[in-house]
Design brief:
mainly alpha
């Protein structure tokens, strides 16, 4: 039963667009370093969300194609957080009991459903107000989820 629940849980991780490349290693290292510094200083890690996309969006704003370019900037960072989520889920599974896995799987289903309904709305509003659109929403929501899941994985594996 635990394997089945974890398979469902992993399936609920946002999938990468097939046209997009995997995570950029230099970008992933930048996020890793940021999160390490945040942890060492007893901070949440939220400051690391967007550290790849935001500077890219700042450059995109100077171009005529900034609306589409800003979506690409957000799409560039999202695979890093998606990969981190998959790793956090695997780590969580190592120390979690069946009830924990079931609870987190259920919560992940709700989160995934919310993400799929919420983020597309950002592509329907004024793009100048929400640069990056649905991609930036997915980036932020996924990164926040990862930060929590990584802490949970550490907590269930401390013994």
């Amino acid at each position: 039963m635990t394997r089945f629940l974890m398979a469902v849980f992993v399936a609920l991780v946002p999938t990468l667009d097939p046209a997009s490349a995997g995570p950029n290693q230099a970008d992933a290292q930048k996020i890793d370093a940021c999160l390490k510094t945040e942890l060492e200083n007893d901070r949440s890690g939220i400051a690391c969300i967007g550290i790849v996309a935001d500077p890219c969006i700042a450059v995109a704003k100077t171009k005529g194609s900034y609306r589409e370019d800003s979506k690409a900037c957000a799409a560039r960072e999202l695979p890093i957080w998606t990969a981190r989520m998959q790793a956090a889920i695997r780590q969580f599974q190592k120390g979690a009991d069946k009830q924990m896995v079931a609870a987190v799987t259920s919560a992940q289903q709700s989160w995934s459903s919310s993400l799929s309904r919420l983020c597309p709305v950002f592509d329907k509003v004024d793009p100048d107000v929400a640069l990056g659109g649905a991609n930036y929403c997915r980036l932020q929501e996924t990164a926040m989820r990862v930060i929590g899941l990584e802490k949970l994985a550490v907590a269930v594996n401390e013994h």
